[in-house]
DNA sequence: TTCTAATCGAGACGGTACGTCAGGTCTTCTC
DNA sequence: GAGAAGACCTGACGTACCGTCTCGATTAGAA
């Protein structure tokens, strides 16, 4: 197979850009993470950034997905409720994290005006995480723990949307007890 | 009684600005509703806009609050579950509305970078609507329908956050059946 | 004869406006003496200013003419040369004055873009002062001191333009000795 | 030799800006030659103009210095008086010129409020022209034509300030005869 | 080694929007 | 009727960032 001719893409540039964007987005909020500012801080030319990313939000999103790479895995040997508590708790912890939270908030904000960001966010952030919950619930249905008529999408919504809601509106994140109460309540309402 | 000195504020200007901002925000999304564009469309001078509003998002928010003035009221003679279904259904309908939804989405987006918008949105949009649900649930606790140990904030989160979640991530809004299922599930989990 | 109806014009307003304009023009240069700034400092409404003056420069000019009201008079019993030295010296002193100089400079600057100021400056500032010199020179011609063929306008130009020239280009003003040398030279060139 | 990096500066842009500024300043006077108007007429972006010039007056000045590049040279074999007549006549012609005069007038006007323009005007317009006259007079002193005690600066003032004076106050320019009379008078007053 | 293709950097340029300031005009109330 | 108070429009200001562009400098594999 023919290796690419020409100068290879610099990995140093990529990581410097992602780090700069994350720094700027974390502090200073959106509006701070402009392409100009990222280029200045990363000491990378604007031209180069435009060659690889379509927008500042895309950079922040890429950095976000890079930094939160490990998916939430079901603890082995856990009951369904334990698995759900673990998942919602982990999600809640990520969104409450001082590093990740503001980044995600920025990207969500940018998604309102950029269909490409919107789609990428849905496909690469939301869907994988929902899928894990859906799987757990389907397994519970298959195991007879849950009624077959349960509307799984609605249950997932009830479980995962509160952490986003509180992040978006600047409310304090859910405590661990609140997470437990949330999952318990929804679970009891299903069985 | 002291009448106001000077030329009175033009109501025509205010409504033209709000209408223009709403139009622009609905189509074109955020980024379209700039102060410049609003001024052009409303045929109002930029200076005047700056005199009365601090930002484009503030205009959109004011128009939003103006257009959705009537609060969601509990139907007389309704049971708690019926009242909750009515409330969540009404909220869901508002967020799914092709006029209001995009506007709120824009304002939520702007809130990420503007603490004033953030605070106004929380105080003038979120709190009043949460309060109605909280009241219904407290009444239910007082009537012995609900356990006194119920974490009401968590229950409210589970009920109201899904419509916002779906709006923000561009997912299809909840159907009426889904709303009913959501309320039923959460309610059964509480009692 | 019928006295004027209605509230009489406030002299306090006029003098406050003139004083404010002079203050602003002296320090801060032109660009500082805007109608807005004058109104603020004089604590007079902008409307009132617009009613009485056509522009900021007109205010400064009026204040200038007010403050330099006494014309330059020929010392009694003086020879022509003495009279000319007195006149040019007095003019030079006025233009070098820290109060009057900057004001006149501002008005000259404004005259470039405002024909009304241009005309008023010529008629009410330049002409009267030139006339005094012209009279002295005509008297000298009549007395046979000066040749009848002398181009008086040219001689006046040579005598009075240097102080303006130095003011406009920000050069140091003429010293008293320089004034004497100037008049002596021109005078000797005429006889 | 290090060649310049980056896209080279467009000479077309520079000349278009200078031409547009000159046109606007000539007709319409100062106040017409705003950065906005220059940008519109030159079809150049405002940003670019701001990158290269600090103010509209600086543009007009640069155009002025560009257009009047050739300095006034002493005609070979001329006597001192002839040289002075030539110089003052040439200066007078430049200031009376319908193209250059208004431009210089604008710049002089702007100099009143802008120390940078003031300094540039003095250094790049006034000083070089004065220097030529000073040289001619010093030569005359060295040749014994002029008394060693002559105050040369005063003589230069008397010779060159009238054309500026008449330009600034909107008086008709000196005729050639008046120029001759002026130089003759001053010269006779010196010897 | 030299050619060739790509990345990267530097910087000019045309735009759009920002938020502010001043100039003027108009409307309303008070003295 | 003079003056104050203030709303409104127009237009220019200087700045920030956008996205595009033209260059030169650099870094590799391929000829």
From TrEMBL, chains A, B, C, D:
Single GO MF annotation: transcription cis-regulatory region binding
Q: Where are the transmembrane segments?
A: none
Q: Name one Pfam family in it.
A: TetR_C_11
- What SUPFAM superfamilies does the record point to? Homeodomain-like, Tetracyclin repressor-like, C-terminal domain
User: Where do the HTH tetR-type domain residues begin and end?
Assistant: 11-71
Keywords in alphabetical order: DNA-binding, Transcription, Transcription regulation
Q: Which residues bind DNA?
A: 34-53
Q: Is-annotated flag, keyword Transcription?
A: yes
The name on file for this protein is: Bacterial regulatory protein, tetR family
């Amino acid at each position: 197979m023919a290796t690419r001719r020409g100068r290879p893409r610099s990995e140093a540039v990529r990581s410097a850009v992602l780090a700069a964007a994350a720094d700027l987005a974390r502090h200073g909020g959106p509006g701070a993470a402009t392409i100009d500012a990222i280029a200045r801080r990363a000491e990378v030319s604007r031209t180069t950034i435009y060659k690889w990313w379509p927008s500042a939000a895309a950079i922040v999103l890429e950095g976000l997905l890079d930094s939160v790479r490990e998916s939430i895995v079901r603890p082995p040997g856990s009951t369904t409720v334990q698995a759900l508590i673990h998942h919602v708790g982990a999600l809640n912890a990520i969104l409450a994290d001082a590093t990740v939270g503001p980044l995600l908030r920025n990207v969500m904000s940018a998604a309102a005006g950029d269909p490409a960001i919107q789609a990428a966010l849905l496909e690469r952030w939301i869907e994988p995480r929902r899928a894990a919950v859906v799987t757990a619930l389907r397994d519970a249905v298959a195991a007879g723990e849950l009624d077959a008529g349960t509307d799984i999408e609605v249950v997932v919504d009830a479980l995962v949307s509160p952490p986003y809601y509180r992040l978006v509106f600047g409310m304090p994140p859910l405590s661990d007890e609140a997470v437990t109460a949330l999952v318990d309540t929804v679970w009891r309402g299903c069985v």
